[in-house]
From TrEMBL:
Its EC number is 5.4.99.18. Residues 4-155 form the PurE domain. It comes from Ahrensia marina. It catalyses: 5-carboxyamino-1-(5-phospho-D-ribosyl)imidazole + H(+) = 5-amino-1-(5-phospho-D-ribosyl)imidazole-4-carboxylate. Catalyzes the conversion of N5-carboxyaminoimidazole ribonucleotide (N5-CAIR) to 4-carboxy-5-aminoimidazole ribonucleotide (CAIR). Pathway: Purine metabolism; IMP biosynthesis via de novo pathway; 5-amino-1-(5-phospho-D-ribosyl)imidazole-4-carboxylate from 5-amino-1-(5-phospho-D-ribosyl)imidazole (N5-CAIR route): step 2/2. GO terms for molecular function: 5-(carboxyamino)imidazole ribonucleotide mutase activity. Substrate binds at S12, D15, R42. This is N5-carboxyaminoimidazole ribonucleotide mutase. InterPro entries: PurE_ClassI, PurE_dom, PurE_prokaryotes. It is an enzyme of class 5 (isomerase).
Length: 163
């Protein structure tokens, strides 16, 4: 088990079906994480306390999922020196384009690494977190390489009509 911990935070319980994909990916790579609901709008004090203490609490990377007017990743990034990867949740009203633009358009000075909308973004956020941790963790680097090899091996050479 990799000791460096990843924090998966999200603005709402309704984000979990998306963010669970990040958690599952971290499980597959045997990376320790904690998942928490931390809303920039509804629980701003919780967000502040989490972000200010995240580094001292032993987290190394933060994955933050939010939808709509998605301030959580940017606000969190403003409060911690840790790398923050933002996952735009696929909102009902605008299919996640609101989430994406809210997260990706950070003014210069406070970066948020923004992933794709929805499930793909959640999975890739976990893989990106793994890649960061793997820089200083050779065993994790091997597991990540194995996962990538297996991912390649799952791609058939030829298309099939059978589902
Ligand atoms: C955001 O508002 C959350 O990240 C969520 O994606 C969105 C809607 O939240 P709920 O109304 O479903 O709780 O803060």
């Amino acid at each position: 088990m990799t000791e460096n911990k990843v924090a998966i935070i999200m603005g709402s319980q309704s984000d979990w079906p998306t963010m669970e994909h990040a958690a599952n990916m971290l499980d597959d790579l045997d990376i320790a994480y904690e998942a928490r609901i931390v809303s920039a709008h509804r629980t701003p004090e919780r967000m502040y306390e989490f972000a200010k203490s995240a580094k001292d609490d032993g987290f190394a990377v933060i994955i933050a999922g939010a939808g709509g007017a998605a301030h959580l990743p940017g606000m969190t990034a403003a409060l911690t020196p840790l790398p923050v990867f933002g996952v735009p949740i696929q909102s009902k009203a605008l299919s996640g384009q609101d989430s994406l633009l809210s997260i990706v358009q950070m003014p210069a000075g406070i970066p948020v690494g923004t992933l794709a909308i929805g499930k793909a973004g959640a999975i890739n956020a976990a893989l990106l977190a793994a890649a960061v941790l793997a820089i200083t963790d050779e065993e994790l680097a091997d597991r990540l390489n194995d996962w990538r090899d297996a991912n390649s091996a799952r791609v058939a050479q030829y298309p099939s009509s059978e589902s």
